Amino acid sequence: MNFDGTANPKSDLKSPNRSSEIIDVSVVEEEIAPGSEPIEDVWDNNDEVKAQPSITPVAEEPQPSAPIPAILSSPKPPVQPEPSEPVAETPTLDDNWALLLDEIGQELEPEPEASSNFSDTTTAKVTNLLRTESQIAAEIVKLRSTQAQLQQQIVDTQTSFGQIIQTSVTELEQRRQKLQISVEQLERRRDRLKEEISKSFAGASQDVAIRLQGFKDYLVGSLQDLVVIAEEIEFPQPPPAQIRLQTPLPKTPAPQPQPASKDRSSPQFTEPAFKATAGKVRAAIDRYRSAPDYYAPAWQLRRTLEAVHADKVSDWFFTKDGRGAVRTMGSRLQNILVAAAAVSVLRELYGDYLRTLVLANLPERLGDWRRGFQDCLGLSKPDFGGNGGIILFEDPEALIQKVDRIVANKEMPFIIVDNSEGQISLSILQYPLWLAFAPDPDRQLDDYREYR
Predict the structure, then answer these.
(1) Would you report the helix, strand and coil content of the chain in percent, each value rounded to 5?
(2) Cβ neighbours around 289 below 10 Å, total
(3) Domain boundaries in the chain?
(4) Which of 129, 115, 4 is nearest to 68 (CA)?
(5) How do beta strands 390-393 and 323-327 pair?
(6) Based on the number of CB atoms within 10 Å of its own CB, is 157 exposed (0-12), middle (13-18) or buried (19 or more)?
(7) Domain 215-227+259-450: assigned CATH number
(8) Model confidence over 3-60: pLDDT tens digits?
(9) Are strands 323-327 and 354-359 parallel, antiparallel or unpaired?
């Protein structure tokens, strides 16, 4: 009841003591049209349903229509009132209120079919949600298992990388130690080689060549001047009377001039008495220039003698009388060609009595002389060294001793001095045949750089 004495429809509808009303089923079926929308249940206070947005009805399979049960507390067959004659009665106020309340109650009472459809839709949605929840839970379990596997793989990978890095670092450390040991060994070897080079002849010769280069030039120039002055000196001849008083000689016929090949003690090429020997020398030089024999026997020149080389040989024979220095030709090979021509001519004059000696201060230069003579004179290895052929020397003292023994054996020594010699021993000047190549002061060659 309201405060104004009227009845409350909700309390009357939900009251359990409300008297059951008889509803005609046929009338209800006529009111529920097939296309009518279900009436909202205004009395349902379910928060879950109210919180949902507009619900899209789910299409369901058509089901056979079932008879809508009558909402009755105790179903009874409808009682038909007995027909009676209409009595004209005047409706009272209570009757009007009762009719109005009945109409309102009928309008507000939910239809059974709408409630059933809503319940089925909600049940289907709840079922779908539960199924989705179970699927999500299964996926969560699966993802957690995958996560655990990935974490285990990460741990294993980190462990493997750590082992690999540790192994690599160990190997690199071992290699570094080996390299350090190798570097230390190489440094010690380098220091040892430096010490050996500084103590060896090559290293010492470099320092000596640098320090004495200027002094060598002075010595060479002085030696050349000394040779020229010695050749120009005229020794006084004793008077004939004094010679007769000191050493009276018997009267004998004047000796006939001997060929130069028979006099091996002091060869002469310029005096008129030895014109035959000079002719042989000139003929040999001309033959070497104009008609060289490239297949000549050993000890004969096998190369063409150019004009400049022929002039050097002629000057040494006829101007310096086989004893003197000539200006170098600029290279050791050209000097060897000039010396080979002189050896070939002297070999024709003296034969096997000739002994050639070469003086150079380095084994490399002596090797050049050996190869040059082999090429120009057709010599072989047995022609070098020993008591015959060509003998090579680095020390002038040893050369002088060998020359003394050759002279004692009554053989003819021929000394050749390389242009690398800074000075010539005065003992060499006493021998009858010697050829020295004087270096060109305008083209000085460093001894160390020549064979570097």
Answers:
(1) 55, 5, 40
(2) 16
(3) 215-227+259-450
(4) 115
(5) unpaired
(6) exposed
(7) 3.40.50
(8) 444 545 444 444 444 444 444 444 444 444 444 444 444 444 444 434 444 444 444 4
(9) unpaired
